[in-house]
Amino acid sequence: xxxxxxxxxxxxxxxxxxxxxxxxxxxxxxxxxxxxxxxxxxxxxxxxxxxxxxxxxxxxxxxxxxxxxxxxxxxxxxxxxxxxxxxxxxxxxxxxxxxxxxxxxxxxxxxxxxxxxxxxxxxxxxxxxxxxxxxxxxxxxxxxxxxxxxxxxxxxxxxxxxxxxxxxxxxxxxxxxxxxxxxxxxxxxxxxxxxxxxxxxxxxxxxxxxxxxxxxxxxxxxxxxxxxxxxxxxxxxxxxxxxxxxxxxxxxxxxxxxxxxxxxxxxxxxxxxxxxxxxxxxxxxxxxxxxxxxxxxxxxxxxxxxxxxxxxxxxxxxxxxxxxxxxxxxxxxxxxxxxxxxxxxxxxxxxxxxxxxxxxxxxxxxxxxxxxxxxxxxxxxxxxxxxxxxxxxxxxxxxxxxxxxxxxxxxxxxxxxxxxxxxxxxxxxxxxxxxxxxxxxxxxxxxxxxxxxxxxxxxxxxxxxxxxxxxxxxxxxxxxxxxxxxxxxxxxxxxxxxxxxxx
Length: 503
Hints:
Blueprint lengths: L12 H4 L14 H10 L1 H4 L21 H10 L15 H11 L11 H7 L1 E2 L19 E6 L4 E6 L5 E6 L9 E2 L5 E5 L4 E6 L4 E7 L3 E7 L5 E8 L2 E6 L5 E6 L10 E7 L4 E6 L4 E6 L9 E4 L6 E4 L5 E5 L6 E5 L4 E6 L11 E5 L2 E6 L6 E6 L5 E6 L7 E2 L6 E5 L9 E5 L5 E5 L7 E6 L5 E6 L4 E7 L5 E7 L2 E6 H5 L8
């Protein structure tokens, strides 16, 4: 089963999004529903629900959508796609059973092998025939790559004019944020259902794609531009690709020292260390895989004090600030010694992967949002002590800033006040401004232009928008209507691993 980037519009999963795995009632009989699936869905989504012309229909690959929304999608179809309306074909009860069936783990769990990965590989453009310099007039370091979650498209935005210079359809549910080659020419995407894609920002064209699994967490690109490493939930492993054409190099089973098979929580590159750093979700380990010289990618095991869900680096990349959703707080791991050196005194469920650092009174501090409590925690990166807890109007998910900005921007993504964005003074650690960009709609995820003069904020709504602000006056400069623009990523900030943006 292979997808290319001129493939037909997404079907059912184009509207389903992410859903938590939910088991149906024990007495549910899916015999008839399975027959209906085979009759109506197999041609696009595969007999094992692993995808084909449409994305995978496995609970591991679904999103946070409510079942009522899934029922509506099946009943009414999806405009401008091949997803037909089934309300005249299936009864309401059959549609409800279909939703339960899709959200229920398969009795015969599907697998994904190295052979499957190789067979999925597809070259979409011959790099040797493409120009090595930008074939557009935009500043290549001030481009934004915008993920449109509502329509499964990507827009390439000029960061000076805030005009689109390209737009293309993506695979279903891009996840974990795109990553860039060291020179900023190429951007790599990972979709929730396992597709890794490579796009050329110079020529505004897709280069290659490979499916590395059935449920992928995220990916990283080596600082020398040679390797792409993807981490999977299903199957639980790491998949190493050649960055040049996305051909498979090897898969690495993520099995802990105790023999536990694990999903991968996060994969990032650590440029000064010439290595990838990986968090394992189901065993208390972090791995470091060197890509210096001629690497064999044998993992160096670092035993943690808790299960790891995500992490951030300190500015020198010596330490990990790691957290687990199974426990409160977090831990500091010294990558040089491979030891956990202290706990981090954080309440609730800190989202360290979205934390940022900056200098306050000449010393580095680190701030993290919290996805279960309305507060921002600020840590001293020298002593690991909590400096301050800043109350917010609700739990948040993202933080962003820029070395040239006096503010750290944070949302309150969860809870009833989703429309709110707080601007925190980075020196006083007080909320200086509270904005409501589109009252009643979820405001989240800020990204600055490369020079920090402007920033773009997302409104995550079907009738949402990108809103451009002047970073100093805070006045709105432009509003670009868009369907759930979930994130946008500035090329220069990302390849420079700039202060104020997550990595």
